[in-house]
Design a protein that fits this description.
Structural class: alpha+beta
Number of strands: 18
Strand order of the largest sheet: 7-6-11-10-9-8
Strand content: 15-25%
Number of helices: 15
Distance between the termini: 58 Å
Shape: flat
Length: 573
């Protein structure tokens, strides 16, 4: 008997161990699949940023003011022109060098760290540009000490050779800041394996593999990384197992090596969720096994009780067994409900991963054409000056960029900085932004700011986005109605601030708020929207710890109500 019991225990332990590792392998594959989607999105973002201004040096090289400055023209005019271009495009610096590498004019000519008078002939991007090529280079600034990505283009006749080089410097630091804010672990390295950007600042300017003497001499000659020592990074990748040891921690590991300039993107993900789900699956299976064992024992007791039905003691035992069985059945049903909930959560995570891949694809495919259109419009403005057609095309390009920004919402993690904001003033600003839409809809918007204190701790721009989306939906709803009226109420209590938008439009129909919150679900006619407004708004409200609800009015139209706590739990994450 003891041997049979021991053998059963050993068998159960072996089955549990096998089940755990099988479940872990399955859930690990799911985590790697989601990580691959995130890596694709980050790779697309990096590539888009690198190619966003690739056309600008070529356009600047055709600028007649640039050519005049190279032939001895006044640099003051070009300094102001380059400063204006850099500010409007969000570029760190634009500067012009003669054929010796001496900087003649720069957008930062009036700053203490001006490039004017500095000689950059030692930089590879200058040397390649003088050979008639569009050159790209990443390095730490020799003048400012600030790292950046450089584009350079020759200026001059194709017959007599370049007379100089026009270059731009882009600051990619915000990519690293966004990685840090997301809480994910990412490394961007160049072809030499040196970390350029990383979610952990301590990893930056470390080498993924030992550098050769030739590599170090080339880096020193170009002053690419200033005084950085370029020590080896404490990591050990295992590509076959798709894991890596970094900083003494084992993480799931994926990489993408198809970036421009032979750059690589490395993505690290903890496996704690896979392990937790594997333990949960094993626990549920063991629990079901115990239930089955108990059920067998109960059946045995019932058979014995049927044979001894005349015994009052056995009848009492049988009733107790029935009560225990009922409790066990309810526990099993509860376990099955928990399992179904877990499966539903996994299905939702898969849909969100697919949506992240869709957002990545759309932003990747549209980013470069939109950037090219904006650059071409900028070139047209430099050549012909501002025109009505040019302004209209600029607006259309901005609208296209706004659509891609909405899609990027689904890949974004974390929240922006929170502060004390007045909800009444935020609503007033949102209505001012929507004033053209209100006039176009010929609608009446009623909003009487409350006299009560309606301040809370939140992100002003994000809350304004929620208000704008809900009021814009109300404006769309009243289109075609005889009475086009929108009423906005706002109030507060000790714990929360609320606002409610009521319209006289077509209402929600048979749809619920959960239906409308699904991405790409819209009640507008084709071409009037993407169906992301309520999805984005619901995400923002959830990040603030609040709730959003909707209902049909008694007579006509619908009402949307948002409740936000005065102090969001934990502040920004």
């Amino acid at each position: 008997m003891r041997f049979a019991t021991l053998a059963s225990i050993i068998l159960a332990a072996a089955c549990a161990t096998g089940l755990f590792w099988a479940s872990y392998a399955y859930f690990k594959a799911q985590e790697l699949e989601k990580a691959a989607a995130r890596l694709t999105l980050y790779r697309s973002t990096v590539e888009t940023e690198l190619r966003h201004f690739a056309h600008l040096p070529f356009l600047l090289s055709l600028d007649p003011v640039v050519a005049q400055t190279l032939t001895g023209g006044d640099t003051t005019t070009l300094d102001a022109r380059l400063a204006r271009f850099a500010q409007s495009a969000g570029i760190d610096a634009i500067y012009l060098m003669d054929r010796t590498g001496l900087t003649l004019s720069a957008s930062n000519a009036k700053s203490p760290n001006s490039f004017v008078g500095q000689n950059y002939a030692f930089r590879p991007y200058f040397q390649d540009a003088m050979n008639g090529e569009l050159s790209e280079f990443y390095g730490i600034g020799a003048t400012t000490g600030v790292p950046g990505y450089f584009y350079a283009m020759p200026v001059g006749s194709s017959v007599t050779g370049p007379e100089g080089v026009i270059a731009i410097k882009l600051d990619l630091a915000y990519l690293q800041d966004s990685w840090q804010a997301s809480g994910e672990r990412i490394i961007l390295s160049n072809g030499d394996g040196i970390v350029l950007l990383a979610s952990d600042p301590d990893w930056r300017y470390q080498a993924l593999a030992p550098l050769t003497d030739q590599q170090r001499q080339r880096i020193i000659a170009t002053r690419q990384f200033g005084q950085e020592q370029l020590t080896a990074l404490d990591w050990k990748p295992d590509p076959q197992a798709q894991t890596a040891m970094i900083g003494g921690e084992e993480l799931l590991y994926l990489n993408s090596r198809d970036l421009p300039n032979s750059w690589s993107l490395h993505f690290f993900v903890p496996d704690d969720q896979a392990a937790t789900r594997a333990w949960l699956a094993t626990g549920i299976m063991l629990f079901l096994t115990v239930l089955a064992f108990i059920a067998l024992q109960v059946r045995r007791v019932r058979r014995i009780g049927a044979a001894l039905s005349k015994s009052e003691q056995e009848e009492a035992q049988l009733r107790q067994a029935n009560e225990r069985l009922a409790i066990e059945i309810e526990e099993r049903r509860a376990a099955e409900r928990n399992l179904q909930k877990t499966q539903a959560d996994l299905d939702r995570a898969s849909r969100l991963a697919a949506l992240g891949q869709l957002a990545s694809s759309v932003t990747h495919e549209l980013g470069q054409p939109i950037a090219a259109m904006r650059n071409q419009l900028a070139a047209a403005e430099m050549t012909d000056g501002a025109t009505r057609l040019n302004d209209k095309m600029q607006g259309l390009v901005a609208r296209m960029e706004n659509i891609t920004k909405q899609l990027k919402f689904f890949s974004r993690k974390g929240r922006d900085q929170f502060e004390q904001i007045d909800m009444a003033s935020v609503m007033t600003e949102a209505l001012e932004l929507l004033e053209p839409s209100i006039k176009e809809a010929d609608a009446t918007v009623e909003f009487d700011p409350p006299h009560d204190d309606v301040t809370l701790n939140g992100n002003r721009l994000r809350i304004e986005q929620v208000m704008t989306n809900i009021v814009r939906n109300a404006l769309d709803a009243v289109q075609g109605s005889d009475l086009r009226q929108i009423s906005i109420r706002m109030g507060a209590n000790e714990t929360c601030v609320w606002f409610e938008v009521t319209d006289t439009g077509h209402g929600l129909g048979t749809r619920t708020l959960d239906d409308l919150r699904e991405p790409f679900t819209t009640t507008r006619e084709s071409g009037r929207g993407m169906g992301l407004g309520l999805t984005i708004s619901a995400g923002i409200v959830s990040d603030h710890g609040g709730t959003i609800s909707a209902k049909n009015n008694t007579s006509e139209g619908a009402s949307f109500r948002v409740e936000l706590p005065r102090a969001a739990a934990g502040g920004p994450r």
